[in-house]
Amino acid sequence: MVPIFVSLLYWQKLKIFEARISPDVGCLVISQLADWCKNMTEIRLHGSVLMEREVTCLVEGLSGLKILDVCESTLSCAALGIMLDGRLKCVREINVLHCKFVGNNGEDARADYLDFRVFRDEMLEKACGMKSLKKFVHCLEGTCLHCKNRSSENK
């Protein structure tokens, strides 16, 4: 058993969780949080790698979240779509600031400006359609120097 899973047995009243989660245990940690921490209202997964599987576990298991912060993480484009699909009924704030978005091919989605613009518009429209969402923190505009520098370092 991974050490954090043992701790979760004692954290049943945990409301806020903040960590960096490695891709190999991401879904396991999130599903354990959903199973054991029913009072969870805020989750911060900075610098994590979150694909469709992890985000699906998150929105289905922790649908009562009020704050979801995944800034500076790597997200698949589909994962952001799942975050904004309306299953998080209570969410007031979603933070995807400085995230790297990867497409179906695993490449940086910002590399294709036109496709990324269509993706951005779809995501902003989804965010606007969420009734409980009051704050959507992002840098999807393409002018963020932090994101430009990070993507040029990875080339």
From TrEMBL:
This is FBD domain-containing protein. It comes from Camellia sinensis (Tea plant). SUPFAM superfamilies: RNI-like (SSF52047).
